[in-house]
Amino acid sequence: MKPLILKGVRPYGEGEPVDVLIRDGVIAAIGDVTEEDAETVDGNGAVLLPGFVDLHTHLREPGREDTETIATGSAAAALGGYTAVFAMANTNPVADNEVVVQHVARRGREVGLVDVHPVGAVTVGLEGVKLAELGTMAKAGVRVFSDDGHCVHDPLIMRRALEYSKALDVVVAQHAEEPRLTVGAQAHEGEQASRLGLQGWPAAAEESIVARDCLLALHAGARLHVCHVSTTGTADVLKWAKARGTQVSAEVTPHHLLLTDERLATYDPVNKVNPPLRTAGDAAELREALAEGVIDCVATDHAPHAVQDKDTEWSAARPGMLGLQTALSIVVETMVRTGLLDWRGVARVMSERPAEIAGLPDQGRPIEVGEPANLTLVDPDTTWTVRGAEFASIAANTPFEGMELPGTVVATLLRGRVTAVGGRIRS
Amino acid sequence: MKHLLSTEGIDPAQATAILDTAASLKQALEGREVRKLPTLRGRTVITMFYEASTRTRVSFEIAGKWMSADVVNVSSSGSSVGKGESLRDTALTLAAAGADCVIVRHPASGAAHRLAGWLRAAGTSVVNAGDGMHEHPTQALLDAATLRERLGDLRDRRIAIVGDVLHSRVARSNVHLLTALGADVTLVAPPTLLPTGVESWPVTISHELDAELPSLDAVMLLRVQAERMHGGFFPSAREYSISYGLSERRLKLLPEHAVVLHPGPMLRGMEIASAVADSPRAAITDQVRNGVHVRMAVLYHLLAHEEENA
Amino acid sequence: MAPRQRGATDPAGERELLSAGDVARTVARMAHQIIEKTALDAPSAPAVVLMGIPTRGAPLARRLAVKIAEFSGVEVPTGTLDVTLYRDDLRRGPTRPLEATKLPEGGVDDKLVVLVDDVLFSGRTIRAALDALRDHGRPRAVQLAVLVDRGHRELPIRADYVGKNVPTARTEEVHVLLDEFDQRDGVVLR
Asked: What is catalyzed by this enzyme (chain C) (predicted)?
């Protein structure tokens, strides 16, 4: 592989533009670089960040290859600036055993556009009854376990999972949703859902599970990760738990940072997601919590769905939204343009913290000589208009359709190799 | 008017026009041998009922037929719906087959709104005949028509809606319509049967039926929707009846002129005492009768004018 | 207000065809014609009812009834017949509000029904009225009385009693003004 020079880039958006030389997958030099016979990517002063890490992606393979495959999802990830993604376990068959997780990892390597890390199920079949073989899957390389889509609602099962995970140096990621409080739930329980006649999904259904799990994690001395935090109350619980020394981390999705349940008035299920879009007050609090580090990172919950599963009456539609190719822009819109985060902050929430939470040694690293060249180059000033049909994903269910958003990915580098440049995949 | 999807945000002038038309239709048909008007000759009206219903479907069917529309009834059993066809495909099929108007009853809130979107290109009108827990606008219109007959102008009239407001599309449609017509609406229910955020509705909230009765012009009882009940919204039918049922004792607390409404089907004994339901104060059969005229009026306002460019 | 000159055109482009006095005289003449043609005051007279077509046909029918009573001593029942629901042109305009239909006591069965309208133009309103009437019963005969016949018939319909024949261009509008709605009587061309 030829050496690569990123010309005129600003690491973390700081200082004057510099050149970055990458050789053999590693950052070889930063500053004035001269290298014969090197490929160059013109940065034009773009912001250089560590490659993004998504702790929460649905790649749908195996099972729903009509909506996304590991190949198309990897392309979407690379185009969105990601160098590592965690593929959720709710595939068909469920990733609750080493065979499925090894298959997902192998397909990810074959595609080679992004590091695809399989998430293992916590319980067999995501049924919440019997622990899956966490140890065997951990030996096969699984770093994160989650029944995402379902809550590990039985407190005893959750306690056991937390305790058991300690020996494996893995983290259990909880989809926090008390099922008894969300029977038939369709929308955030509040004024809007009441007006629209949609069965409510109360904030307390999330908050009570998060509070319970924080108590269990502290008791067990185990690590807990909270998926897609969506309410002010959950942020408050996390703050309290962290102050007590709980080893808890948490993610927020781009859509919960930007969108609110006001959008439900059209009944268009493109806005249906689980947990549901909350109020403007929640969105504002989630931004604050992310800025303060109460919420550790941004994760997409990228959830491709077929047209026939989305263009339906509200209650028949599946919850979920595409996210990989819009996450950066939503973070720029909600966090950077508002002054809540600088580019160091973006690096923290999109790359460094998720890499730490999942224990990835070669992701989210500092932009320094000798570090692996997993990098994302971002043009912060250019705006673009979202067109779901143009995404690399097979599905097109983006709630941001038609929005003009700031920030584009100029190039994504995976171990020194350009995976996406100028909005195109390079394989 | 292109569609009737909800009463929320309805222009009071539009609502009044529909009610006036309904009253005129009622008067025009009264005592006639031939209860048939040629007004909608050649128009095709399709009813799509995805929930069991007798009175609403029959009422719409009669309304369409009395206006000379060709009325076709589709139910979820005995159609492609039973074969798993999506609502969207069924709607597009019916529009392609020539429906001028689709009347839809569906368990999903917002189903009628979605249909109106899917049928925009076809130009088909959509009437919401009840969508989930959202709205049932023609029920509210027939309730208002009945109240106007008995009380005249509804401005500043005090009307209580009693019972399962949480799950009730009838309650939502009536709150919007009656307040638009100037009435003063009170919701009376246990807190478990009131929606979250109800404080922001333009209504008064009460948990004490007895306290409200003496100042009411009308009391509207809601059906306790047993089929939607999962997990004790109230301790027992007995306690509900004691607290919120309209008994003969409570009827005596109402002013002489006050009207009793129930959208049916009634749970006699629990929601309403039999003697109350059958008393002259109850306008329950008037509601059914007015339902036909109101639905005729709705079809008239949707279909008997030049095409609107939606 | 100064009496208006017949035939004068006011600044709004309005030409008076009949004054208030003309309207009264015309109604009186039509009443006489109805009495004569129906032999209303004869011993074997048929039962006559006047059915006004709203809006302005309704008060005209009542005025005719008053005059008929005055001239013949016979009280002729009146009613109103709204034809909106029977029109064939509903899809050519915005939603039309409905007017009242009120049959006289005893209905229209076996009666000589005189339909009363203000202006006879295309004939489509009368066609609708005949259909509407059929749904209310079986009259022995139907006649038509109009205050103004402005021509331009589109159907084979003719009035039995005409107050005034007015040649018009198709684009012109003839307005009958009645005190009950317009605070004055008259017929104007706009």
From this structure: UMP + diphosphate = 5-phospho-alpha-D-ribose 1-diphosphate + uracil
What residue of C is the nearest CA neighbor of B296? C85
Of B86, B109, B195, the CB nearest to A314: B109
The predicted model scores a pTM of: 0.92
Output the known binding site of B for carbamoyl phosphate: 55-56, 105, 136, 139, 264-265
| pLDDT per residue as tens digits for the range A371-409 | 999 999 999 999 999 999 999 999 999 999 999 999 999
With a cut of 50, which residues of chain A have pLDDT below it? none
The pLDDT value recorded for residue B310 is 42
Residues B106 and B181 in one domain: no
Task: Provide the 10 A C-beta neighbour count for residue C90.
Answer: 20
List pLDDT tens digits, range A122-134.
999 999 999 999 9
Q: Which of A47-56, C91-100, C178-187 has the highest mean pLDDT?
A: A47-56
* Neighbouring-strand partners of residue A139: none
Q: Annotated binding residues of A for substrate, as ranges?
A: 58-60, 90, 274, 305, 319-320
Q: Which residues contact A152 (CB under 8 A, 6 or more apart)?
A: A122, A123, A128, A158, A161, A172, A174, A175
Interchain pair B38, C86: CB under 8 A: yes
Domains of chain C: total: 1
Please tell me whether residues A169 and A205 are part of one structural domain.
Answer: yes
Looking at the fold, whether A40 and A57 belong to one and the same domain comes out as: no
Range of the domain at B88: 12-136+289-303
Location of structure tokens 């339909």: C115
Interface test with B, best of A180, A196, A199 (most B CBs within 10 A): A196
Chain segment B66-79, per-residue pLDDT in tens: 999 999 998 877 66
Q: Do B225 and B131 share a domain, yes or no?
A: no
In a domain, B2, yes or no: no
The pLDDT assigned to C1 comes to: 42
ipTM reported for the complex, 2 dp: 0.94
Indicate if A31 and A163 belong to the same structural domain.
no
A363: in domain? no
Residues of A tagged active-site: 301
Residue A323: name the closest of A265, A279, A270, A260 by CA: A270
C97 interface with B at CB cutoff 8 Å: yes
Which of the other chains make 3 or more beta carbon contacts under 8 angstroms with chain A? B
List CB contacts (< 8 A) between A193 and chain B.
195-196
Buried b (16+ CB within 10 A) or exposed e, B19-31: bebbbbbbebbee
- Residue C190 one-letter amino acid: R
Confidence of residue C55 (pLDDT cuts 50, 70, 90): very high
Give the CATH number, domain containing residue C158: 3.40.50.2020
Q: How far is B129 from B109, CA to CA, in rounded Å?
A: 11
C12, part of any domain: no
Chain A touched by B85 (CB under 8 Å): no
Burial class (CB in 10 A: 0-12, 13-18, 19+), C122: middle
- Tell whether the model's pLDDT for residue C2 goes beyond 60: no
Q: Which residues of C fall within a CB distance of 8 Å from B39? A: 85-86, 90
Residues of C in contact with B20 (CB under 8 A): 97-98
Per-window interface: B 20-59 vs A, CB < 8 A: none
